Amino acid sequence: MVFTLVWHGIVAALCSSKASSRYRLCALVVIKITSNFCWRSWRPFMSDSHCSRRSCTTIAAFVLAAAALIGTAEAEITTVGDVSPTYPSDDPEPPDPWEFGAELFVGETGAGEITINGGSIVSGSFASIGEKATAIGTAFVTGEGSKWESSDVRWVGNEGKGTLHIRDGGSVTNSHARIGVTSTSDGTAFVTGAGSTWENSHEFAVGFEGAGTLVISEGGLVTNNRHGRLGARASGLGTVSVTGPGSSWLLAPHGGETGIFAQLDVGESGTGILNITNEGLVSRR
């Protein structure tokens, strides 16, 4: 029984570091499982009248609350594998916000992953996910208030494979961005859920010279100034899907300057595919 409670506590602690809706689901599961156990093994110490679902559920709720305290103490920024620089999670007080400086590579030559959640903030200048041809980079920006801010450019799949997930209210900002930068690259980005945003203060290219895919769904929002490009160069293959009510890709004139119009090229010199379905929106703002 003690082992069971400890195990449930560990599960709840892991769940508590995720989005609140997932935490509530885990809470229901843990309480349901625990309530199915009876304290008959403690019969020498308790009467049958105490052996009830109510007592078991109360204990489960207590364990869950304690696990939640454990979960909230966990670092909300994590880096795994080939990430440079590496987040100093072993520090007595890991920085949050974390300013990485001039460059951040998620998957520089090998496999690397970064997760930003729970309202944490990562900021710096240049960022690349899947830098070299041998690299596989993955990034998650999850939850309301979670931010990844780059004052310079952002590559998703520079020469290698890169994947960016922005969901559940997370946000990413940068100057301009390219998904699928060079001819060997494979880049994919998902912007999912109301409040999830990717803001580009300059141009935005999907499939610049390589293969690039962008999916905006469930109310996600992507914005950029001046120029949107799908299949920018001859070798580029860019695919954008905007699907579902509230899901939007909005383009604006650069800096609001008069006479510099927002422009969207679908198949600029390469191949471009734009899918707008189920009340999705692509428009100038």
Could you explain the architecture of this structure?
The chain has 285 residues and is an alpha/beta fold. It is built from 3 helices and 22 strands. The strands form 2 sheets. Strands 2, 3, 5, 7, 8, 10, 11, 13, 14, 16, 17, 19, 20 and 22 form a 14-stranded mixed β-sheet that branches. It is globular, with a radius of gyration of 23 Å. It starts with a helix and ends with a strand. The N terminus is likely disordered.
Rounded to an integer, what's the Rg over CA atoms?
Answer: 23 Å
Helix content: 10-25%
Identify low-pLDDT runs.
1-53, 55-75
Distance between the termini: 60 Å
Q: How many helices does DSSP assign?
A: 3
Summarize the main sheet. 14 strands, mixed
What coarse outline follows from CA principal-axis ratios?
A: globular
Q: What are the secondary-structure elements, in order, as H or E? A: HHHEEEEEEEEEEEEEEEEEEEEEE
Total strands: the figure is: 22
Overall residue-averaged pLDDT value: 81
Percentage of residues in strands? 35-45%
The helix/strand class is: alpha/beta
SSE diagram, text form:
Elements: H1 2-16, H2 20-35, H3 53-72, E1 77-81, E2 83-84, E3 98-106, E4 111-117, E5 121-129, E6 136-142, E7 147-150, E8 154-156, E9 161-167, E10 171-174, E11 177-179, E12 186-192, E13 197-200, E14 204-206, E15 211-217, E16 221-225, E17 227-230, E18 237-243, E19 248-252, E20 263-266, E21 271-277, E22 281-284
In short:
This protein is of the alpha/beta class and 285 residues long. The protein contains three helices and 22 strands.
